[in-house]
Amino acid sequence: MQRDHVYISELGEHVGAEVTLRGWLSQKRSSGKIRFLVLRDGTGFVQCIAFVKNVSPETFEAAGQLSLESSLVVRGTVKADARAKGGYEIDVRELELIGDGGEFPIQPKEHGVEFLFDNRHLYLRSRTPQAVLRIRNEVVQACRDFFYERGFVLIDSPILTPAACEGTTTLFETDYFGQQAFLAQSGQLYLEPACMAFGKVYCFGPTFRAEKSKTRRHLTEFWMIEPEVAFLELAGLLDLAEEFVSYIVARVLDRCAEPLEFLERDTSGLEQIAAPFPRMTYDQAAEILRGEEAQKRMREAGAPPFEYGGDLGALDETILTEGKDLPLAITHWPKEIKSFYMQPAEDDPDKVLGLDLLAPEGYGEIIGGSQRIHDHDLLEQRIREHDLPMEAFQWYLETRRYGTVPHSGFGMGIERVVTWLCGIAHLREAIPYPRQIHRLYP
Ligand code: 4AD
Ligand code: MG
Q: Is 170 within 8 Å of 210 (Cβ atoms)?
C-alpha cells in the first residue's frame, strides 16, 4: 500500500524524524502560546503541540480556530514522551485543513442513547464504539482462525431460504419472484449436508430473527458462527464448545488489552476461563431455579416463577451464572421447547440432546446447539409434529437417506460474546449498525 504519511501506530519507528500524519481532530485546548490538538487516525490518538515559535502565525491562528472532527494533515517532529498517552507527541510545524468539522453533532458531553444511535454513522468515531468494535474484530478473527487451524471448511450458507430452521415465529418473510422466501435464521440446515461431504464445516454470516420483543439481548440482524461435525455426538460437541470459547477469550485477553482497559473491563474473571466448564442437565438447573433462594429472587424482581418444562428466562440465566467465572453448559432439554431436529436422549425420549452455553456474570446464552436426529423416519415425524411444510425439507431429509451418521453442531452469536467480553450492557453496542424492532436507521 503506497502512502505518503505514517499512521499513529507507527510513530515509534520515527522518533526524532519529521512525519506527515493524516486524521481527524478529536480534542483541542489552548494555553497561551501553545495549542494542543489530539489527532485520531484509526490506529491511535496522538497529541500534536503547536508552539507559537515553531509554526507560522497563520498556522498558530488556524490551530486555535479548528472545529472538532475536522480532517487534517499534520507535519511535525515525533518526540518520545513517557508522560504522553501512547508514549509520543508531535511538535507541529505545519497544519493543513482538508475538511472542516462543522458543528459535529456528538460533543464531549452526555448524549442520550437514542441520539447516539440515530447518529451511529458519526458515533463510530467515539472511543467507546471504537474499543468495542476492535474487540469484535478480534473475536471474529479468532473464530475464523480456530476453525481454520482445526481443518474445518468454510461453507457459506444462503441468506434467502425456502424454509424455517428455528421455528416460525421469528421469520422475516420476503417475496422471491412470486415465491415465498425467508431470511436465514441459521445456516445449520445447509451445513448438515455439507458435513457429510467435508467432515468438519462451519459458516459465518448475518442471521435474521423477527424478534418482536425489545430486550438488550436481541437484535433482528446479528452474526452467527456455526460449526457442524459428522460423527460427533453431544459429549464431543460440549468439548468443542468449551475449547472454542476458551480460545476466543484467551485471544481477546492477549490482543485487546488496550480496548478492554478503556472499557474498564475487570478481566479477573475472564482470565480464569479454561475448559472444562461446569455442566448440568436441564433437570438439575430446574432444581436450582425451583429452590427457595431462586424463587425469592424472582418474587423480588416481579418475574414469574420458573415453571418446570419451560424455557429459561433472562433472570433464570442470571441466577444460574452470576458470580461465576466460568460459562455453564446446560444439556438434556425438554423436547417441547427445542427445535425439531434435536436428537432425543436414549434413556429419556422426552428430553433432547441440546446444548445451551450460558456466559458467566449473567450475560446469558451465547451458544445454542445439539446433536441432530440422523434417523430419516424420526426426523420426518418431527417435521410433521412441528407442522412444518414437508416439501421445503425434502432436500434436508435426503441427507438421512444416503449414508446417514450421527452429527452435531452449534451456533454462537458474535454480539452476545462481544457484549460479555466487553462487559457492556446492551447488544446494540456490539455491532456496527444495529437492527432492532424500532431501529432501521441509519
Ligand atoms: O440457539 P439458537 O437459536 O440456535 C440456532 O440457531 C441453531 N440452528 C444453531 C446451530 O445449532 N447451528 O441461536 C444460536 C445463538 C444463540 O445462542 C445466541 O448467541 C445467538 O445465536 N442469537 C442471537 N443473538 C442476537 N440476537 C438474537 N435475536 C439472537 N438469537 C440467537
Ligand atoms: Mg438458543
A: yes
Ligand 1 residue neighbourhood (C-beta within 6 Å): 165-166, 186, 188, 209, 211, 218-219, 222, 224, 226, 365-369, 409-413, 415-416, 427
Check: CB of residue 240 under 8 Å from CB of residue 232. Answer: yes
* Main-chain phi, psi angles of 114, to 5 degrees: -60, -45
pLDDT digits (tens, 9 = 90+) for 235-284: 999 999 999 999 999 999 999 999 999 999 999 999 999 999 999 999 99
Residues 197 and 335 in one domain: yes
Scored b (16 or more CB within 10 A) or e, 209-234 reads bebeeeeebbbbbbbbbbbbbbebeb
- Domain hosting 21: range is 8-99
Please indicate, yes or no, if residue 1 is contained in any of the structural domains. Answer: no
Same domain, 52 and 174: no
Minimum CA distance residue for ligand 1 atom 31: 413
Domain assignment present for 247:
yes
> How many domains, in total, are found in the chain?
2
Mutate to test the pocket of ligand 1, among 237, 245, 416, 431 (most ligand atoms within 8 A of CB): 416
Q: What is the pTM of this model?
A: 0.97
Is 106 among the domain residues?
no
Q: Whose CA is nearest to atom 23 of ligand 1?
A: 413
Same domain, 155 and 226: yes
CA distance 285 to 306: 11
Distance CA 246, CA 57 (A): 57
* All three cell numbers of 218: 436481541
Q: How far is CA 18 from the centre of its chain?
A: 40
